[in-house]
Amino acid sequence: MFDVSDLHVAVGGAEIIKGLSLSVPAGQTHAIMGPNGAGKSTLCYALSGRDGYDVTAGAATLDGVDLLALEPEQRAAAGLFLSFQYPVEIPGLSAIAFLKAAVNAQRKSRGEESMPAPELLKLLRAKAETLKIDQEMLKRPLNVGFSGGEKKRFEALQLAVLQPKFAILDETDSGLDIDALKIVAASVNAARAPDRGLLVITHYQRLLDYIKPDRVHILAKGRIIASGGAELALELERDGYDKYVRAA
């Protein structure tokens, strides 16, 4: 489903990702863990097409589609979703208007009609309720004045509503208390499907207590340097990254 081969990414002329390869089959959830500065967020931004993150070599495909040849909005239309570590604020645009625009843009890319407003509102309210998101929150400007936990819940709401083919979750546990963590993790688990892949990027084992990955990869110095089962995350929790950073 999702394949990255020998990817190299430079930021400001400095190479950050240095020959990274990764494959996530449909129906699986993989986790990437690594120390600060390993290149986790750089990988996310490069795959989503953010300006300033220059892919200098390698390939990235989703269901055989060359993602690197597409503009960011085309990557989203192809089914790629990114949950940001630091979601941006957009004053003047309500959260519900943002979701409406996103849903209908996706439908248009598939040649479908826009979703009728009553149907869309019913969908949003149902999904928001599962995430314990207050209906008034949907009327507020996007992420403006949201707490860290509210921002992450809203990103989980986007995932639930848009139903992408492949989702990259960049430190979605950042800023969450234990109750919010459980709610967001439950939403991510609900997104699992035989035709969908998930890539969870995190520093900590605690998220993986709730989102059980099929595979865990360690990223250090811009490369995947070790992979294994869920037990690898437990080893990192116990022993830290030092051994793998030295190896890298």
Automatic annotation (TrEMBL):
Residue span(s) of domain ABC transporter: 2-246
Per its UniProt entry, which superkingdom is the organism in?
Answer: Bacteria
Q: Which CDD domains match?
A: ABC_FeS_Assembly (cd03217)
**InterPro entries hit by this protein:** AAA+_ATPase, ABC_transporter-like_ATP-bd, FeS-cluster_ATPase_SufC, P-loop_NTPase
Family stated for the protein in its record = Belongs to the ABC transporter superfamily. Ycf16 family.
UniProt keyword terms in alphabetical order: ATP-binding, Nucleotide-binding
**Listed Gene3D superfamilies:** P-loop containing nucleotide triphosphate hydrolases
GO terms (molecular function) for this protein are: ATP binding; ATP hydrolysis activity
Query: What's the name of the protein?
Result: Fe-S cluster assembly ATPase SufC
Q: Which Pfam families match?
A: ABC_tran (PF00005)
